Amino acid sequence: MHQDSVLHNLSLTMVLAPLLGAIVAGFFGKVIGKTWTHRVTILLLMVSFACAIYIAKLLILDGMPSYNGVIYTWADVGKYQFNVGFLIDRLTAVMGITVTFVSLLVHIYSIGYMAEDDGYQRFFSYISLFTFMMLMLITANNLLQLYFGWEGVGLVSYLLIGFWFHRETANFGSLKAFIANRVGDMGFLLGIAAIMTYFGTIDYSTIFADAGNFTQTTITVLPGVHWNLITVVCLLLFIGAMGKSAQMPLHVWLPESMEGPTPISALIHAATMVTAGVFMVARMSPLFELSQVALTTVLIIGAVGALFTGILGVIQSDIKRVVAYSTLSQLGYMMVGLGASAFSAGIFHLMTHASFKALLFLSAGSVIIGMHHDQDMRNMGNIRKYMPITYVAFLVGALSLSAIPPFAGFYSKDAIIDAVHLSTIPGAHFAYICVVLGAFVTALYSFRAFFMTFHTKERMSEGLRKNLKESPWVVWVPLVILVVPSIILGAMIAGPMLYDPHSILGNSVYTAPQYDVLKIMAGHWHGAWSAVAESIYTPAFWMSIAGVAVAWLSYIVFPRLPNFVTRRFSWVYYILDRKYGFDDFNQIIFARGTVGLGKALFKYADLKLIDDYMVNGSGRGIEWFSRTLRKTQSGYLYDYAFAMILGLLVFLLWLLLG
Amino acid sequence: MTFTIPNFIPAIPEIFMLVMICVILMTDLFLGKRIKSIAYSLTQLTLIGAFLLTMHQYGMPKVYTFDHMYVLDKLAILSKLAILLVSFFVFLYSREYIGMTKLPRGEYHILGLFAVLGMMVLVSASNFLTLYLGLEVLSLPLYAMVALKRDSGVASEAAMKYFVMGALASGMLLYGLSMLYGVSHSLDFTAVAKVVSETSPAHSLILIFGLVFIIAGIAFKMGAAPFHMWVPDVYDGSPTSVTLFISSAPKIAALIMAYRLLVESAPGLIIQWQHVLMVIAVLSIVLGNVVAIAQSNIKRMLAYSSIAHMGYMLLGIIAGTKAGYASSLFYVFTYSMMSMGAFAMLLMMSKSGFEAENIEDLQGLNSRNPWYALMMLLIMFSMAGIPPAVGFFAKLGVLEAVINANMTWLAIVALIFAIVGAYYYLRVVKVMYFDDPKDATAVTAPMDMRIAITINGLAVIALGLFPSALIGLCRNVFFG
Known about the structure:
The complex is a heterodimer of chains A (658) and B (480). Chain A is mainly alpha-helical. Chain A is 74% helix and 4% strand. Chain A contains 26 helices and four strands. Chain B has 20 helices and two strands.
């Protein structure tokens, strides 16, 4: 009881502190001024971060049992009960640290990045609100609260993509994110509804406890076709995850989201929000483990995304877009990990990715500050001379991302690749090829961006170059802090996270015995350093090295090579430049088709049928009715008395005769 | 026949009220000219005292006294608490207005207190006579209050209409009660209920006759169609502070009266009264919502809205289940709170020589006083039943009750006309926020009124966000 109340209070503080910050910054930001706005929000976020660390200590180090409790019953409708409740287990603890840590650094970084912006207070209010929503999402003990957080982070994300709402492209990007997510959320909502219908509850613990009873249940969506219930539920939930975690083909919104301020790209569109889908699948592992079809789907979609969105990163010239496509690719890796039932590996990659991707984005942001908001790498070059700290930070990020041992990304990505290699479910073979090739692509685009930005000839204008200098300390301090986990996080926790029988995630994720690849891998694990030594026997390692080498050759040694390749293989370049045609397809089929359909419906159904006949018609009808009825109120006493007596008589006759 | 001293304890709040009314009557006579606020202060003290005394009774087991004529049960206690609380706010809101329009202070407060006393007796009745006594102690002061502005022709006309119609309705009620008495030879609710349930079909004719007359009386008191004719004229003709009073606390008393008469004393006739009430409810909902649209006078508009709300409130009774009764109780509590807030806003906008009573008087309230506009907006949203205001949960409760009683069609009709009704509530919001004010002076009010309207407005939203506490109280009355 005592332990429960400790966790209860800690998690409540952790979740509510950022909300308080958002309220203060949002409603009183103009009153208290810019300085106090960031002081208050950052202080409250530190509180939240401290709580997250303490929760993790209690759960993971002290081995306290997880806490599952109801905070408030929101509605009690028939047989359903809707609660606000917390499930604080190891998965939540790990996610809590990741979210609050990155968010805290992004808050600090934003002091520098947003200093000149008019929407300073609005910005801080949004990111604090985002943190609150994300914490609600990960602490939820039921699907409704998860959905609340899910939509909440989505909302803040749309608001922030369109933060500079006077820019046409920002509004377009925000709209695109909104629409793509609607498709995903539709699936997610249907999944929740299916669970509610069949399980009769939306409470995790009850769902997981009952899941075993439904393995043979089938449902009929189309007449004559029987589908396994668990499979349908998992696929629907996964559609939601595809939207939020930008998996193919719902990934189109993420590159567009780069229209938002760079700290946001780091926090929301790289480190935290987009991993919500990964978190959700891990949270729902007891369901996914029951359906091989769902696991295979997760695996294939993830693998396809990991490879093909990575390739797109190779041809981008906008520094943020490169990192954005790399995010898409890495999210694919996480999904592959989940699909291979290596849930710990997926979440581990989520953590390392959060640190090195935030590092890359914030470094890119630092460059962008120096370049006065020019993001085109073709206008950069040799920036290492002017921004040494940023240079080192980006290098560490790129090494970690390219999975070069012993950086953090190596441990997590290598674990995923191994897991897929060992996995026996259908599609694992194809996925393995994708992720290994993906390792090459990852290293290629990371180092291409690195070389183009920090090495090669200086291509910026004279005026810019004169003013080019290292960013202020509020910007580079977060970079330095992020460098640390990007280097050591992997070596430090790979063992306990993945292979220890009492692993960090413990029983908060569930793996069916027949899929348990991590258990096999644990047999080959001899500590973090021997993993580095053994890595030279893995194809993935050589792929990464090859990627770095190709980038070095084509941008430093033979700078004319890329141009030659582009001309020689112009059809490949064309396909990549059109992003495999996803955007065009959406634009032509969905956008134009919808607009056309909308216009037709508007003209005939809306204006004529609904507006004219139904809306205005019923309005006119009611108004006429109203005027007529009003006349019964004549003002004469005898009319009133007559109405009363008439009413009385009618009732009498009706009851007596009827 | 031996005479035993009855148990006075259950009636302590009423006795306290009566004593205090006499005290106020005398103090006002001798000190009223010198100390202007004495009647008001003593009135509020009386209400607080009675509230505390009733509070003290909360949780007591059900007890009868005065020869089984008077009952103190959970329903009585909870509704008395609500009536006293609402009345406290009513007098608070009226203070400034009474001074401004030079209505006789002493009379207003004393009459008001008598009406409150009548309501308290009414909700505690367990016998036809007590019930009728309470009803008349409630009604007579109200007639006089409507006519309080003696030099106003409209007010006198309204009072006259109210009185004549009220007398007619009282007559009908008495006639109906006498028929029930004729069959059962008793005036006691439980005894009547027993006879009514066991009576042979031969007697059913006279019972149905009696029932219809009783329902007519109840419907008149509530102001439900087709016995509603007095409502718009009285709401419109009375001084706004009186309208405020009539539209709030007495509605609670009327619901309890309906419950006591129909559910407690005539459960055997449930099929019959359900049928009649269904027609009354539908008529009220349709007529109230539709005619309200055509009104330009906001007091008349709110009058029709109250007719519609009474229709919704009846749905819970019609359902004939405990959950239904609880939802009706919740409905009437929240309705009297919303109605009070709406009229209070009109009081605050009135200045000496100017009565705010047309919808256009609210034009541009947002620029004159944004906080008041927000409070009015919350109240209007709540009346329209828009979540998360409490009005939504009130409607949800009664609709759920009728659906559970397999009267889905009734719920559908109620819902459609709730949508129609949203039009005129939202028009008020539109006028406040999107029209330019004719008179740009800021709207101000004394501190206590500002606090009260803030509590009132925020309560509408707070109870909507956290409805379970009040719903729990209401359900506890019937299930506990």
